[in-house]
Amino acid sequence: KLLDIYLPKKNRPEFCICSVGTRADQDDIDIGIFTEDLSNADEFNKAVRKINQNMLVYATPLHFYLSEHVGNQPYSSTITEYDELLSKKIQNVVIISELLNARLITGSERFFKESKERITSRYYHHPSGNNLYHEGYLRGILGELRAMLLNQSQTDSIAPKYDSIRILKSFLYAK
To answer: Does the pLDDT value for residue 78 go beyond 80?
Structure first.
């Protein structure tokens, strides 16, 4: 509804807004926004900035980790930008895990499926194909798991997000 207010449909690019975080994390909402290649993405990102401000005031903060690390826009990235980055750098486990965990919130379902195919299909095991990205991701996630298990703090309290949820998520992602 807010996007309808801040950006008329005639001015919108094809896009999808996805949940990319753990639903059990309650401190923010991790989202990823994928758009088509845009000659001028400023108008779309300005509308998302206004939505972000409304969420911060009236609901809960949005976290744009993916777009902070991919592309040139603060709130969205293109499929091409992800493709180019991940073709060169396959070791960023957080980005890959968030992409693999992406679930459509709103936007084009067709575009979401296309983005999943172009961006994340390389990380799944392909019995008769090239598994370089799949193996790289597995090595990265297992390295992250090892680091988390070795670096657990010795306190008299438990922080579920850091002491269990992230470790369990990593085991599930590796599986």
So the answer is: yes
